[in-house]
Amino acid sequence: MRIAPDQFVAIDIETTGGNADTDRIIEIALIAFKKGEVIHRWQTFVNPGRPIPPMITRLTGIAWGDVADAPPFGRFAPYVQRYMERAGAVVAHNLAPIERRLLGAELERNGGAWPEGLDEICTLSCARRLRAEGVLSAERLRLDALCKSLGVRLRQHHRAEADAEAAGWCLLEMDRRLVAAHLAAAQHRPALPALAADAAFDAIGAASRRSRKKRGQ
User: Fold this and answer.
1) In whole angstroms, how far apart are CA 201 and each of 198, 210, 214?
2) Is residue 217 assigned to a domain?
3) I need a surface site. Which of 10, 78, 117, 150 has the fewest CB within 10 A?
4) pLDDT tens digits along 87-120
C-alpha cells in the first residue's frame, strides 16, 4: 500500500506561537513534489503585525528585522490557497495541530479557507503507523529525529523551507520502505491453498487408480 501520492505540496510554517486566534505566521514555505522529485519551491517571510517572542527567535533564528519589511499574510493568502488546491495533496509534519489549524485560521482571516477535498498526509502519523508495523525503528518521531532515522537531510531545523522539504523527503522514504516491506512479506508467504488442493486431488486420483487396478486383478 502506497502512502505517497505522485504529486503533493509539502508545507511548513513558523509562527509567533501556537494559538490560532492570537498568533500569526512569520514564515511559510511550499515545496511541490511530483514523481519523487522537487519541481518547485516557494518561501517568504511574513510580517505578523506583532512582536516576535524571544523564545521564537531563539528557536527559529527569525527576528523582527527579518520580517519588518515583509508583506502581511493577506498578500499571499490567495496564492497559498490556489497552490494547495492545484497540488491536490498536502504534506506536513504534525499537520493537524500546526499547519491545518494555524494556516487555516490565517486563510480564513483573509477571506479564504482551507481547501476542501485535499488529501492531507501527516508524516508524524505515517511514522507512527510504520513503527507499529515494524517497518520503522525510530524511538522519537520529531522531524529532526525522523530525518536522522530515515537518512533524510534536514538543512536547518525550525525554518520553513528546510522543514517542508525534509517532510516531503521523509514521506517518500517511508513510502519506499513500506513498499519494500510488503514485497518482502509477499515473497515469504506459504504456498497458496490452490497448490495444496492440487496435491490433494493428485493423491486422491492416485489412490483411485490403485483401487481400480486391484479390482481388475
Assistant:
1) 5, 14, 20
2) no
3) 117
4) 999 999 999 999 999 999 999 999 999 999 999 9
